[in-house]
Amino acid sequence: MKIIVAAISLVIACASVPAGAQQIPPVGGPYPPTFTATLSNNVPLAFGMDAEQAARALGTPLNYLSGRPGDEIYLTFRNIGGGGLFFKKDRLYLQFRKGRLAGWKGDWGHNWMWQ
Fold first, then answer.
1. 5 found inside a domain
2. pLDDT tens digits for 62-77?
3. Domain enclosing residue 102, as ranges
4. Contact in structure between 46 and 53 (CB atoms under 8 Å)
């Protein structure tokens, strides 16, 4: 008898929950993220940015390497985490033409620790 009462009270409790609370929408909208948004090398850069916008998007300062004013090459070090004791910082080169971002290239270099 106690089992029947417990089962009936469970059914009543579940029925009293509002319908909107039962469905939880996925994070980021109703659709899954695009393939390129899930890549580990996804960089928040877009062609046509100026140097200030690129630095703000990356969250790191840009270091001037070479080039005339407006056609510069900058270098930044992105902290991409790491495991345990050592953080991994990758170099990212940014090419600007006429003051606008024309391209970028990541340089992973050699790991000095395992040579």
1. no
2. 999 999 998 999 998 8
3. 45-115
4. no
